[in-house]
Amino acid sequence: MKVQRVRIPNSDRITWTVLDDNYFPIRPIEQFISYLESIERSPNTVRSYVHHLKLYWEYLADTSRDWTQVGLSELADFVAWLRNPQPGTTSMQEQESKRTEATVNAVITSVCMLYDFQERLGVVENIPLYRTTMQPGRRYKSFLHHINKSKPVRTKLIKLKEPKRIPKTLATEQVKQLIDVCERIRDKFLIALLYESGIRIGQALGLRHEDIRSWDNLICIVPRENNANGARAKTRNTNNIHVSQELMGLYTEYLLKEFDDIDSDYVFVNLWDGVIGRPMKYGAVADLFERLSKKTGIHARPHMLRHTHATELIRSGWDAAHVQKRLGHAQVQTVLNTYTHLTNEDMKTAYQDYLNKRDK
């Protein structure tokens, strides 16, 4: 059983499917993936679902179960199968789980969505996936919360409790060090852009020169489906990001000294490696961060700069709704759950402020 990458004939579109041991597509998965593509789910999302469902079909094959004849106990057994480093064996000693709680929950979500889809088609019936409860408490309450709070909501019956994870961030000095060791202005601009704007790497790689309004210190994030480098904005809405004049100055320097007469409307293009003038791909950025990490000894990845930007905004007193808008999140709750964390240094600073005010 394997995940197969597929290129759609007469187009640049890429999709994925799961092949059984005889190299035939597994029909229930194939139907579900076609549905996801018809509602325009991103290729990365589709790929994740395919890999998750491959695991589920491997479990069904290992346990000789029919995918249409499962119940709560079988789904719970699947969770144990995912967590056990050596399925089919019982260890007398404590072992580290093969997959994290978050990974297992993501796999279960994919399986639930497959069954939801197949239930609508009438292929399966009464698979026990959910329970109905009243709306759970949330830290952020919307304007109409008093109306919606009494409405029942569906929650998954099987879900592991995930430990609270604080997003990895960088100190300001570390970001400056990463920028300083860059040998190219293009790379300096990319690092500075990710740090100062908080945009995703896919949004940066999809930027066109027409999206940057240097006279107004404004960057417009425009979702596009046809980026030649496969970059995805991960949003369907445009978003305007205000940046500093210094960042725009770095962009101008990049255009004058390195971009020069390159004929491309993409901002970040290959200038020394690969096909010159072609837009940079994710792999090129990964290689850049790997080189910077080796030079500085700092473990850095593009998304860490987004986390760093959001965390600094929260600590400086920005309202969560403003941070949500700047980052392009659909829900304020995402910002509250992800970035409103306190470190030991935060607690020390807050307590020192308290002492200073008390002693005045």
Automatic annotation (TrEMBL):
PROSITE patterns given in the database record: CB (PS51900), TYR_RECOMBINASE (PS51898)
Pfam families: Phage_int_SAM_1 (PF02899), Phage_integrase (PF00589)
Domain Tyr recombinase: 165-352
Domain Core-binding (CB) stretches: 23-119
GO MF annotation, one: DNA binding
Source species, domain of life: Bacteria
Gene3D superfamilies reported in the protein's UniProt record: 1.10.150.130, Intergrase catalytic core
SUPFAM superfamilies on file: DNA breaking-rejoining enzymes
GO BP: DNA integration; DNA recombination
Alphabetic keyword roster: DNA integration, DNA recombination, DNA-binding
Protein family: Belongs to the 'phage' integrase family.
Name this polypeptide is given: Integrase family protein
The species this protein was found in: Crinalium epipsammum PCC 9333
